Amino acid sequence: MRMIGIGLMTALLAAIAMLLGQQGLWASGWQVLRGMVTGAPGLVFETPSTTDLPAGSSGFAAQIPRATPQGPLILSGLPAYQSASFLLPVEARALSGYLHIDASLQALTGVEAVLRVSIDKTRRAELLLHPDRLSGGAGRSLRIPLSPLDLSRERLVVSFSLQGRSAQAPCGPEDGTPAIVEIETTSHLALTLDRPLTGLRDRVVGWGGAVQVGWPGQGNRAAALARLMAAGQAQRGGVPVRFAPHGLAADEVLHLLPDLTAPEVADPVTSPWPRPVAVGANAGLRQFHRATSWRFRAGQPADRRVSGRLRLDLYLGQLSAQARWTVTVTLDGRLLREVAAPAGPLTRDIPLPANTPPSAMIEVTAYAHIPRPHLCDEGPELMAELRPGSLLLPGAMRQEDPLERLRKGLVGAPIGLALPQELALPDAARAATLLGALLPKDTAWRAVRPERARILVVGGGHDLSRWVEMPGWLLDHTGLRPLHTVHPARTGSAALLIRPDPGQSG
Fold it and tell me: C-alpha angle 288/293/297, rounded to 5°?
């Protein structure tokens, strides 16, 4: 009887395990158990079945990083907004996949906050911040399965919104940053593909949209110059570039450029205007307390034409009878316009100062003046939207500077280039940026001996003593200056030495 009882118990346990597996509860239970042990579980949203492969199918795994990450995305304070882009393969076909988000979280005691994740303006996940568990910071991972519609796109735009309230706000020193979320650079798309990422365009996708240029070994200076020139041309077209021991050759980079160059910066003089600003994290309806801000640059680094006006198109939500809106527009922290506005649509044309640099930061802030019966009452939830009609309109051409005049003098016969010394990878990246900024589009060039070169590419710490008494220019990260003004006569980082045409003969 004892053996029969053990057999029945074994059969019962097996049946329960099978039922849990069919209902998807086994994985959920294991996830909960893992969270109890580690305190930082990975979270799976929606239904795992959206990523199942068809029966009998197989594929190739690939991880696609965030497009051109310059560092983590930081959401600071309540509310806060950020956005990121993820490219999808062009030649290979994505069969299934999910978005993996790594986030570091911090929140003060008494904060009620949630991190919302949306894909192409559709909310796909929410993560509740628990201040009692986050006082010293914590890491969490989110996994969001992708639908067939998601996988059919060329680019996924992922928006992050940090919403909530603090028990301290708006009182005391803790009012400013009750919660901080950092979206790490390890976030990625995990895809199953029908073929590997072997095509040139798909390899760029696998690098996060940046062209990875292979740096040749010692002694191959002609190949190094060719790759520097190709990388500079890519950067001039708005394509991010990085150098690595293994990557694309110069001819592969040039072959890719027509497919990769952003159309709005392909020709900076004739690039399309006007330019929308209600994109990325600035797009869509916002919900907040007291105030919200939208930020964007006045232009792009390669622009030859400056922004002349901001056409502002806002919608401001309804307020109580005693409340009113104030909208401010600033340029690099200086006030351009302040408008008292009622609820509803608000449109204004705001002139920008002459020759505003493309790097200037424009900030639009909507602030609600609402009577508060108590000092620590944060007030009602408000709504506002920076609408698609918000545009940057073109202004005058930028004034010609010494670099522009020097660039015009380099048009014509092939330019002689020389690389007197080997470059380290960081110096190669800087040199490519300088070449892209200096040389006109499609410049013809050839490798020559240093004494015959019009342009010498040198690395950090290069001795300039033999050159500083000669006519010419030095272009480095600080800008353009005559050679005779360079003291001490040594480069601090990669630089270009531009000399008068020495009548190159090869």
Answer: 150
In angstroms, the first-to-last Cα distance of the chain is 100
Q: Per the structure block, which two tokens stand in for 407?
A: 């660039």
Element containing residue 367 per DSSP (H, E): strand 361-369
Q: CA geometry: angle at 177 spanning 175 and 179, to 5°?
A: 120
356 near 306, Cβ under 8 Å? yes
- Tokens 């920076």 belong to residue: 386
In angstroms, the Cα distances linking 106 to 124, 130, 136, 178, 281 are 22, 9, 7, 8, 21
Q: Which residues contact 321 (CB under 8 A, 6 or more apart)?
A: none
Q: What is the DSSP-derived secondary structure letter of residue 387?
A: -
Residues 6+ apart with CB under 8 A from 216: 223, 224, 227
How far is CA 39 from each of CA 29, 138, 169, 422, rounded to the nearest angstrom? 15, 9, 28, 50
Residue 279 confidence class, pLDDT cut points 50, 70, 90: confident
Q: Is 308 helix (H, G, I), strand (E, B) or coil?
A: strand
pLDDT in tens, 196-244: 999 989 999 999 999 999 999 777 889 999 999 999 999 887 788 999 9
Q: What's the whole-number average pLDDT of the chain?
A: 82
In whole angstroms, what is the distance from residue 65 CA to residue 87 CA? 8
Return the DSSP state at 266. Answer: S
- Long-range CB contacts (within 8 A, 24+) of 462-466: 462/420, 462/421, 462/490, 462/491, 462/495, 463/489, 463/490, 464/489, 464/490, 464/491, 464/497, 465/489
* CB contact burial 102-135 (16+ within 10 A = b; e otherwise): bbbbbbbeebbbebbbbbeeeebbebebebeebe
CA angle 400, 405, 410 (to 5 degrees): 145
Helix (H, G, I), strand (E, B) or coil at 12: helix
Structure tokens at 201: 């365009």
Q: How far is residue 186 from each of residues 14, 82, 103, 161, 189, measured CA to CA in Å?
A: 39, 16, 9, 19, 10
Grouping H, G, I as helix, E, B as strand and the rest as coil, residue 299 is coil
